[in-house]
Amino acid sequence: MTEVVATNETILVVGGGISGMTAALEAAECGKDVVLVEKNSHLGGRVSMLYRYFPKMCHPSCGLEINLRRIKGNRRIRVLTMAEVTGISGSAGDYTASVKISPRFVNEKCTACGACTDAVETEVPNPFNYNLNKVKAAYLPSAMAYPQRYVLDPSLVGTAEGEKAKAACKYDAIDLGMQEETVQFKAGAVVWATGWQPYDAAKIQPYGYDRFDNVITSVEFERLADPHGPTGGKIQRPSDGREAKNVAFIQCAGSRDENHLRHCSRICCMASLKQTNYVREAYGDEGNSTVYYIDIRAIDRFEDFYQKVKADPNVAFVKSKVAKIVEDEKTKDVILHGVDTEGYHRYANQHDLVVLAVGMEPSVKGANIPAEIVADSSGFIEADPANGGLFGAGCASNPLDVNRAVQSATASALRAIQVINRVARVEG
Amino acid sequence: MSEANTQAVEKYRNNFLKEVEERVEEGEWVKMCMQCGVCSGSCPFGPHWAHPPQEIFMMIRAGKRDEVLTSDSMWMCTSCYNCIVRCPRKLPITHIMHGLANYAHRLGLAPKGQPTREFGKMFWNNLVATGRVNELKLSLSLYFKDGFSQGIKNAMAMKDVGLGMLKAKRLNPFELFSPHGCKDRKGIHAMLKKAREIEDRRKHLTS
User: Fold this and answer.
1) How confident is the model at residue B1 (pLDDT cuts 50, 70, 90)?
2) What pLDDT, on the 0 to 100 scale, is given for residue A427?
3) Which terminus of chain B, N or C, has less C-beta within 10 A?
4) B41 and A320 in contact by Cβ < 8 A?
5) Which residue in A258, A319, A340 is closest to B89 by CB distance?
6) A206 contact B CB<8A
7) Which domain holds residue A147?
8) What DSSP character marks residue A243?
9) Quick check: A338 contacting B, CB < 8 Å?
10) Are residues B86 and B8 in the same domain?
11) What local confidence, expressed as pLDDT, does residue B207 receive?
12) Across the interface, which of A252, A319, A339 has its CB nearest the CB of B40?
């Protein structure tokens, strides 16, 4: 049974991505007790799945490492992984949270030696790479996973293979009898930082994401460029593994669209501009990118970055929302059809690969959050006094880039701390 | 140029967008267009008309009154609704196209002899006469639209279909001489007149 020591002076942080980690750390380093609940088997969220950040083009692993180190060194943070908040009741200063913890089948004795991986044959889709490749059913979720502990896929339980994995473990770390459990504990304030998920591209019917191999999403492209990704960092077409040297980026794939997401997801323009750099990085002057856009929203001080990309002769910009994509059946090339707004020219452009700059939607929409909370029409949490001691942070509150998500998380940590301080004053 | 047109020019001067907003069916949506181009790209008639919807909307905003109203582009719309389904701002594009066509027609600016417009006029006059569409008369007037000899040719080409319909009792030749109407023809006419009055008032077309 998992023990969680918490009082109504504890802050519950839901979501262990960059926002949740930041909120938890800021609160804990101010001397508050924090329980950090993460649904996945490890911390880091979407940020850990990025190859590089804009605008500095540095690697997220660097910043994550610093944050993980801070977490490891802070005794006020209790991290629960594979855990989901199923209910929050009560009011500011006196909440009770119910948390469901799924079995990991690997206990804290794990040394991450990898003997269990060697012992099993079965492979499962790898969520860390958006299921673009497979991993052994006993696996370490990512190279810098925290906690640095293996996970056993539930499909191995009750099989001979599961027993084989157990037998291979020298440290008795595999526990095939682990059960799902639900724990309840108190919290004075809640920071809800469940982040975002890419919009389901298959819903944009004319783009054929579900029909054409060489139509992928921006988050998948991020994995292709990453050395830890399914292709080892080579930008290749999913259909035949050929080098993708002529890449199209379609902006507003789902965003700013009353039929899909009403809001502008804000980051996708910068993400695509950044990704044109990946193409250049991989293929130099042989790599070509074409960005199809309604208008480029390089928010705030990122205009500079946009101008730099614009000056690159290998990056073309077409002012047009692509109407439909068709696939050349022989070559599996993708052909983009539309009309260019600057002159109203009809085009049918052939590319090796299309990257849909999919929009951000909240992972847990306002209506699905198991607590009373005010959200906007897209499901992002509003900063509303009616929320009491519940505060949205990061992409649960708005479509944000990493920088802004961290700012938002720090702000919500500060709000949560104020609630806790009020409780502490009353209790003396 | 019709008198209605002169009045419209007088009233709206250079503000064609305002004219469209007030006088064209669903015209108030035009300013919502963000020029993404999905409608134009999705149009199955794409290459065959001068100005795709996106361009028409921009021309309206740019005040290109004559170019828009005399254009045959909106008459080419086949009402497939692809554009409405895909428009990210949910503009009723098909309806705006028909609204523009109708307005240009009322001002007498619509292109003469445009087949869709000609058929539209025939259909309307045919319907209003008795309150019921006389299919025989309608198809004959369509066949003979371009002169007598072409009419005979058209009719001969459709002869088998016509005979088939005759056998299946879907076509009554006596309708040509004594067309049957609806029970209350006067009532229908009164109703249409009233509807026109309401529409004119709503679209600020009353003088």
Assistant:
1) low
2) 79
3) C
4) yes
5) A258
6) yes
7) 115-168
8) B
9) yes
10) yes
11) 53
12) A339
Contact between B74 and B97 (Cβ < 8 Å):
yes
Give B64→chain A minimum CA distance, Å: 16
- The SS3 of residue A251 is strand
**What pLDDT does residue A16 have?**
97
Q: Which domain holds residue B192?
A: 115-197
| Residue at B136 is within a domain | yes
Give the bridge partners for A290, in sequence order.
Answer: A248, A316
Average pLDDT, chain B: 92
In a mutational test of the A interface, the residue from B32, B38, B67 whose CB has the highest number of chain A CBs within 10 Å is B38
Summarised one tens digit per residue, pLDDT across range A175-188 is 999 999 999 999 99
Please determine, for residue A2, whether its predicted confidence score (pLDDT) is greater than 90.
no
Q: Do A258 and B42 touch (CB under 8 A)?
A: no
Percentage, residues of chain A above pLDDT 70: 100
pLDDT exceeds cutoff 70 at A411: yes
User: In CATH, what number is assigned to the domain containing residue B16?
Assistant: 1.10.1060
> Are both A209 and A82 inside the same structural domain?
no
Cα–Cα distance list, A352 to A236, A242, A321, A349, B45 (Å): 9, 9, 19, 10, 28
Question: pLDDT (tens digit, 9 = 90+) per residue, A55-101?
Answer: 999 999 999 999 999 999 999 999 999 999 999 999 999 999 999 99
HEC-encoded secondary structure of chain B: CCHHHHHHHHHHCCCHHHHHHHHCCCHHHHHHCCCCCHHHHHCCCHHHCCCCHHHHHHHHHCCCHHHHHCCCHHHHCCCCCHHHHHCCCCCCHHHHHHHHHHHHHHCCCCCCCCHHHHHHHHHHHHHHHHCCCCHHHHHHHHHHHHCHHHHHHHHHHCHHHHHHHHHCCCCCHHHHCCCCCCCCHHHHHHHHHHHHHHHHHHCCCCC
Domain count for chain A, please give it. 3
Count up the domains in chain B and report the number.
2
- Best probe of the B interface among A205, A292, A341, A349, by most B CBs < 10 A, is A341
| Nearest CA distance, B104 vs chain A (angstrom) | 23
Residue A301 pLDDT level (bands cut at 50, 70, 90): confident
- Residue B35 contacts A, CB cutoff 8 Å: yes
- Verify that B120 and B107 share a domain, yes or no: no
What's the pLDDT band for B172 if we cut at 50, 70, 90? confident
Distance from CA of A202 to the nearest CA of B (A): 15
Say whether residue B88 is in contact with chain A using an 8 A CB cutoff: yes
Residues of A in contact with B51 (CB under 8 A): 344
Residues of A in contact with B85 (CB under 8 A): 259
CB of B71 less than 8 A from some CB of A: no
| Per-residue pLDDT reduced to its tens digit, A93-106 | 999 999 999 999 99
> d(Cα A309, Cα A352) in Å, to the nearest integer?
20
Query: A-B interface: how many C-beta pairs under 8 angstroms?
Result: 63
Does one domain contain both A336 and A303?
Answer: yes
Contacts of A259 in chain B (CB under 8 A): 85-86, 88, 90
Residues A421 and A319 in one domain: no
Chosen domain end from A324, A359, A394: A359
Nearest to A321 among B36, B85, B90 (CB): B36
Peptide bond before residue A370 is cis, with ω within 30 degrees of 0: no
Hey, is the C-beta of A112 within 8 angstroms of any chain B C-beta? no
